Amino acid sequence: KLIARAFEALQRGDRTTAAAVFETLAVASLADADALHAAGVLGLQLGDSVRAEPLLARAVASNPRDPVSRCHLAIAYRRLGKPELAIGELEHALALNPELAEAHANLGNLLRERPDNEVAALSFARALAIRRDFPDALNGLGQTGLAAGRYETACANFERAVALDPAFHEAWYNLSRARTEWALALERAWTDSIPAPAAVAKYALGLG
Question: Looking at residue 203, what is its pLDDT?
Answer without folding.
Answer: 45
